[in-house]
Specification:
0% strand, 6 helices, mainly alpha
Length: 145
């Protein structure tokens, strides 16, 4: 077992053997700052537009933490869920959400989310990246038209 030292991605580890899962827990100050700033940006986008934070979250997780496509998408979903819940609660509190559309869309989102999370488990990372890139491209073209 090798002893950990300073790695090329600026993660500082102490001088003791580390398991792979322990390596992910150690972040440099720069990474922590980038994650906090990224989180603020993602929250702002999600709160302002009512969604879209995941489109920023996934690339940031891949660049800042060097996570794989699958890990980035799974983490983004875990981050966006409570954020969306908080935003939705504010919209409900301000009487901006109508009940019937909310309930019907929610049912579809729950079913689709379960299916999507299950399918993600079996998809190759390259396919996930391609699908995500195509969705981002389609969204960008739609905004321009």
């Amino acid at each position: 077992m090798k002893f950990a030292s300073k790695r090329k991605n600026n993660l500082n580890y102490q001088n003791y053997p580390l398991k792979e899962s322990e390596k992910q827990k150690a972040f440099g100050k720069k990474q922590i700052f980038l994650l906090l700033a990224s989180g603020a940006l993602i929250g702002l986008l999600n709160g302002f537009f009512g969604g879209g934070g995941g489109m920023v979250c996934v690339p940031l997780l891949q660049k800042v933490l060097s996570l794989s496509s699958k890990e980035s998408h799974a983490t983004a979903i875990a981050v966006i869920f409570p954020l969306s819940y908080i935003s939705a609660s504010i919209y409900v509190f301000n009487s901006i959400i109508k009940t019937l559309p909310f309930l019907t869309i929610s049912l579809g989102v729950v079913v689709g989310g379960i299916i999507g999370a299950y399918v993600l488990k079996f998809m190759p990372p390259k396919v996930v990246r391609i699908i995500f890139a195509l969705l981002m491209l389609a969204g960008g073209v739609r905004l321009l038209i």
